Amino acid sequence: MIILFHRVFVYSQIKSSSDAGCKYGSSISDALSLMKTKGVPKKKDMDISCPSSIPIDIFNKANNYKIKDFAKLFDDYTPEGSKNQSVKKSLSEGKPVVIGMKCPSSFNNAKGYWVPTEDYTQNFGGHAMCVIGYDDNK
Fold first, then answer.
1. Could you tell me if 100 and 126 are in contact, meaning their C-beta atoms sit under 8 angstroms apart?
2. Quick one: pLDDT at residue 108?
3. Taking the model in full, what pTM does it have?
4. Mean pLDDT in residue range 39-53
5. DSSP codes of every residue in 97-137
6. Across residues 11-31, what is the average pLDDT?
7. pLDDT at 102
8. What average pLDDT score do residues 25-48 get?
9. Pick from 40, 56, 114, 127: CA 20 to 30 A from residue 102's CA?
10. Mean pLDDT over each residue of the chain, to the nearest integer
């Protein structure tokens, strides 16, 4: 069974108060902390894209879907090979890995295997994603 969770529930609670249009970034650690304490509702339970407030019944539904815990696998100074091994180890133990990635505009139209077309010297916005597997042959 596939469960789709609401993509803005967490963000709407951790974003800057000056971000009324839900257009700016947030913190991955803040998001994970909220997912641990409050959970996340199913997509079908919340039909709001950028809420200014969330009804209490949505929080009650979110409470059923909390993450158990989270941990940082490495820091910015960890060698790349060690980072890859840490991620693979976690995935092999059945633990998903949340990553942060700088995403150029071509990412918004990605389908299947994506290769960025933009110059890496540009300043891109970030996006958090959940990795659930890998293939060393690709």
1. yes
2. 84
3. 0.80
4. 86
5. EEEEEEE-GGGGG--SS----S-TTS--EEEEEEE----TT
6. 87
7. 86
8. 92
9. 40
10. 89
Query: Helical H runs in 17-110?
Result: 28-37, 56-62, 80-92
6 burial type by CB count under 10 A (0-12 exposed, 13-18 middle, 19+ buried): buried
Are the C-beta atoms of residues 5 and 43 closer than 8 Å to each other?
Answer: yes
Q: How far apart are CA 43 and CA 4, in angstroms?
A: 6
Amino acid at 41: P
Distance CA 81, CA 71 (A): 19
Spatial distance between the Cα atoms of 7 and 106, rounded to a whole number of angstroms: 21
Residue 79 has phi, psi (to 5 degrees) of: -60, 145
User: Which residues, other chains included, contact 108 with Cβ-Cβ below 8 Å and sequence gap of 6+?
Assistant: none
pLDDT in tens, 54-109: 899 999 999 999 999 999 999 999 999 999 999 999 999 999 999 998 888 888 88
What is the torsion angle, in degrees rounded to the nearest 10, for the CA atoms of residue 92, residue 77, residue 125 and residue 44? 30
